[in-house]
């Protein structure tokens, strides 16, 4: 059996339990705009990119300007929750990371979270130091269900190639994502 050389983690919902904070943030912000939306309604946004989620919020607010204003308020809500320890590390995440390092496995994090929020979240839990590679959503050209992974795969492959970790298997995986 081949030795695992690299593990790529997602951030939200994998390393940290942040999804409920995002959902509550949107519900709170939309309430301030006069819309009573159940937290559960935001399940439609889970794991989607910024473009998709902005369109969903626009269905309530009507204009891109109001969507951006709401997004800024939701970001503020998230950072307040993060600073008040309302975002939690997922059970077992740190232990898994530490064991992977003991086994000599290289770690990466690839997330649709934008760099400022992603790094702040990783820093909050002292996780940033564990990841040799970090790829954040604002490094992708367009946020959608199908494109970010190709963007992230290309960036990660390029980084791996620079240090000699991009073997034929990695090339094949990246080629599958590109095709």
Automatic annotation (TrEMBL):
<dbReference type="InterPro" id="IPR041492">
    <property type="entry name" value="HAD_2"/>
</dbReference>
<dbReference type="GO" id="GO:0008967">
    <property type="term" value="F:phosphoglycolate phosphatase activity"/>
</dbReference>
<dbReference type="GO" id="GO:0006281">
    <property type="term" value="P:DNA repair"/>
</dbReference>
<dbReference type="InterPro" id="IPR036412">
    <property type="entry name" value="HAD-like_sf"/>
</dbReference>
<protein>
    <submittedName>
        <fullName>Uncharacterized protein</fullName>
    </submittedName>
</protein>
<dbReference type="Pfam" id="PF13419">
    <property type="entry name" value="HAD_2"/>
</dbReference>
<dbReference type="InterPro" id="IPR023214">
    <property type="entry name" value="HAD_sf"/>
</dbReference>
<dbReference type="InterPro" id="IPR050155">
    <property type="entry name" value="HAD-like_hydrolase_sf"/>
</dbReference>
<dbReference type="InterPro" id="IPR008927">
    <property type="entry name" value="6-PGluconate_DH-like_C_sf"/>
</dbReference>
<dbReference type="InterPro" id="IPR023198">
    <property type="entry name" value="PGP-like_dom2"/>
</dbReference>
């Amino acid at each position: 059996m081949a030795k695992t050389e690299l593990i790529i983690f997602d951030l939200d919902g994998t390393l940290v339990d942040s999804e409920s904070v995002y959902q509550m943030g949107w519900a709170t912000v939309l309430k301030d705009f006069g819309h009573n939306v159940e937290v559960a309604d935001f399940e439609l946004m889970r794991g989607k990119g910024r473009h998709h989620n902005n369109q969903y919020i626009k269905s309530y607010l009507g204009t891109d300007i109001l969507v951006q204003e709401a997004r800024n308020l939701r970001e503020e809500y998230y950072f307040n929750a993060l600073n008040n320890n309302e975002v939690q590390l997922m059970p077992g995440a740190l232990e898994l990371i530490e064991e992977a390092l003991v086994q000599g496995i290289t770690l990466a994090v690839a997330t649709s979270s934008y760099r400022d929020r992603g790094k702040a979240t990783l820093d909050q839990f002292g996780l940033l130091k564990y990841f040799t590679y970090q790829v954040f959503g604002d490094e992708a050209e367009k946020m959608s269900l199908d494109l970010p992974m190709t963007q992230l795969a290309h960036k990660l492959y390029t980084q791996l190639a620079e240090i000699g970790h991009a073997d034929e298997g990695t090339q094949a995986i990246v080629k599958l994502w590109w095709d």
